[in-house]
Write a structure and sequence with these properties.
isomerase; Rossmann fold; Asp/Glu/hydantoin_racemase; alpha/beta; amino-acid racemase activity; three-stranded parallel sheet; four-stranded parallel sheet; Aspartate racemase; Asp/Glu_race
């Protein structure tokens, strides 16, 4: 079994899901007492959030690149970045290491395409919805990506940072997300990408009239497949 190097802590709520799902996946595939071989570098999200808010992506890239090199030095065979938003600095990470980075947007796009869906809505942090780095990567695979309108983007972002990252899961926020999804469906989307790892703590397939693509679970499944290859 290969060793998965996880860069997490952004937030630790979703990183805990990564760790749980990876171990469950390995146990399901191998049986018995099998569990995942994981090295985890868990960062202080408060520091990362300050860099995000300042737009200091170079500083954030340096921080995550150091985490990646420490995982490589510790024996990781490949890297999984346990956050969608911080794929904004994926190039800085890849430049710093000699082992592969399993890019979350590539994994997600491949999963969407396998279902035949081509036109997707994207729910994520404002950084991920409004900047080009993630949408361009998805569209490079042939997808058409729609994001919510400005008011809905603000709602989705606020719930992530003010609730889900703090472990707060509220019914009223679930209802708000359902309404955002319904408005995207009215614009013609065939599926919805849950493009922030915390969103899966709030909504799932039952909350959408079209298929949803949970990026955390998809990322973990791809990582475990690579680890067991």
């Amino acid at each position: 079994m290969k060793t998965i190097g996880m860069i997490g802590g952004m937030s630790w709520e979703s990183t805990a899901e990564y760790y749980r799902l990876a171990n469950e996946q390995v146990r399901e595939r191998l049986g018995g007492l099998a569990s995942a071989q994981v090295l985890l570098a868990s960062l202080d999200f408060a520091e990362v959030e300050r860099l995000q808010a300042r737009g200091d992506w170079a500083g954030a890239g340096d921080l995550l690149a150091r985490a990646a090199t420490s995982l490589e030095a510790g024996g990781a065979d490949f890297i999984v970045l346990c956050t969608n938003t911080m794929h904004r600095v994926a190039d800085a990470i890849e430049t710093a290491i000699d082992i592969p980075l399993l890019h979350l947007a590539d994994v997600t796009a491949e999963a969407v395409l396998r279902t035949g869906v081509r036109r997707v809505g994207l729910l994520a942090t404002a950084y991920t919805m409004e900047q080009a780095f993630y949408r361009d990567r998805l569209e490079g695979h042939g997808l058409t990506v729609l994001t919510p309108d400005a008011d809905d983007r603000a709602t989705v972002h606020r719930v992530i940072y003010e609730e889900l990252c703090l472990g707060l899961v509220r019914d009223e926020s679930r209802s708000a997300y359902r309404e955002v999804i319904e408005r995207l469906v009215a614009r013609g989307v065939e599926g919805v990408i849950l493009g922030c790892t915390e969103i899966e703590l709030l909504v799932n397939e039952a909350d959408s009239p079209v298929p949803v693509f949970p990026t955390t679970r998809l990322h973990v499944e791809a990582a475990v497949t690579r680890a067991l290859a």
